[in-house]
Amino acid sequence: MFRCKGVIILRWICGVAAATWLAAWLMLRLASGSRYAALRRLPAEGMKLRQISEPFLLLLERVNAAARFPAFVFRLQRSIQRIYGQRHSTELTLLFMAEMLAYHWLLSLSGWVLAALSGEAGLLVLGLALAAALPAALAADLHKKVKLREQLMMMELPELLNGIVLLVGAGETVQRAILRCLETRKSDANPLYRELAVMSAEWNGGYSFQQAFENFSKRCAVPEVSLFATTVLLNMRRGGGEFVLALRDLSRLLWEKRKAVSRTRGEQASSKLVFPMVVIFLIVIVLVGTPAFMMMNM
Fold it and tell me: Mind listing the domains of the chain with CATH numbers?
């Protein structure tokens, strides 16, 4: 009897909470209107809840999230800039934060609704736990993508530099050498070549070589790429053997750094295999040990 009353009370509380949660979103949606409609057209891969997250943009604006959590917003915006570029980085940061709130709202609502329908407190706890964990996981995944992007650039930069050294040594100009390397790897998904393609478009759009190269270095935001850009800009006017020697010295340095990155990635891959191996080992022990244990009891 007491259990039945507890289930009824739990269902009533969860139903009221779900209705309140939904009403709060509807109020924000009506208040925002078409104020943020232009943000829907911003290119941003991975943001899938724009229709649901739009009202939360108004909430972020009202609470002045950037002033209340400056360290978190700054770190998030820096990662957004490296993934999506500096253009519209402020708006994309707000969209990403609204996406995090949308996932939190949606999972919380799901937990309240499922608990109201079933009367199971475990479903409510699961929904609230996911609502708390998933937004943090989204931010962690974004920062992980930034690190992966930096590693991919670092791994590919020595190959690019070797191609430039060979072509410049054969008599090509630096600009032509870079364009030739870009043409041969145009279909490569490496972010380094995507940024080089943007740099090439800037050349064609009227930027000087120095301006385009500096913009390329800023977009990449990787110390090794900045060192590469600085070396090229400082030595390209000298030309001849001095320029090639400077690039070769830089190439040796970058190959050593590439080896270090490769070792780090190898260690990370091996550490990820530890948990599956432990699980497999436990399963084997259970499969082998259970029949023997049953025979001993018999």
Answer: 13-39+46-119 (no CATH), 153-276 (1.20.81)
